[in-house]
Amino acid sequence: MKPIKIFTSRTVVMASTNIDTDQIIPGRFLTTTTKEGLGKQLFSDWRYNASGELNADFILNQPGSQGCRILVAGHNLGCGSSREHAPWALLDYGFLAVISTQIADIFRNNSLKNGLLPIVVDIKTHQWLIANPGAEIEVDLCSSSLKLPTGISVQFPIDSFPRYCLLNGVDELGFLLSKNPAISKFEEQSNIPLHNT
User: Fold this and answer.
1) Which of 3, 22, 144, 175 has its CA 20 to 30 A from that of 163?
2) Positions in the chain short of pLDDT 50
3) In CATH, what is the architecture of 6-170?
4) Contacts with 173 (C-beta within 8 Å, 6 or more apart), sequence order
């Protein structure tokens, strides 16, 4: 995982409510156990027509969306079935953060564990973001805040442990492995082996 600290990006707005994980990455693409290449299937049923060609009307296929790293979605993003492939696909496409007024718990947890920052904002901020697609905003995970082009700064909630992991670019396993020296030292001092090396 790459650390997330402070970055600035234009937004892509998909104002639909209840965008579920099957829309983010359809079930037929869940056979892979790797993240690489899943960005091509992101929102596949919306991005491509029946013949497999790009749907020019879909927001991600429009020139103004290229290079954007922040997705602003309607209420209740990531509902539906649990699948890590959903944040994997968003990350592989190039998104670093998703914003909504509500983000489904399992999708939020999967995102945090895989390096995608889920941001929940108040209704007023969300309405402004929806009404201003392509706005360039600053995401500051150090202070857990968004800075809008208007100069307004908005705080967003995030628990301390996933925040630490995202800031340092480590997943839960990486965090635990980083504690091996301390565990070994404790074992030596207590003369009680706690784990096999």
Assistant:
1) 22
2) none
3) Alpha-Beta Barrel (3.20)
4) none
CA separation for the pair 89, 104 (Å, rounded): 17
Q: What secondary structure does DSSP assign to 7-74, as a single string? A: EEEEEEEE--S--BHHHHS-GGGTT----TTGGGGTTHHHHB-TTS-B-TTSGGGSGGGTT--EEEE-
> What is the predicted pLDDT for the residue at 175?
63
Domain boundaries, the chain: 6-170
Q: What is the model's pLDDT at position 188? A: 74
Task: Name the nearest CA neighbour of 12 among 77, 63, 86.
Answer: 63
Give the residue from 97, 130, 129, 134 showing the smallest Cα distance to 15: 130
- With CA atoms as reference, report the closest residue to 23 among 67, 52, 58, 65: 58
Question: What φ, ψ does residue 52 adopt, rounded to 5°?
Answer: 90, 5
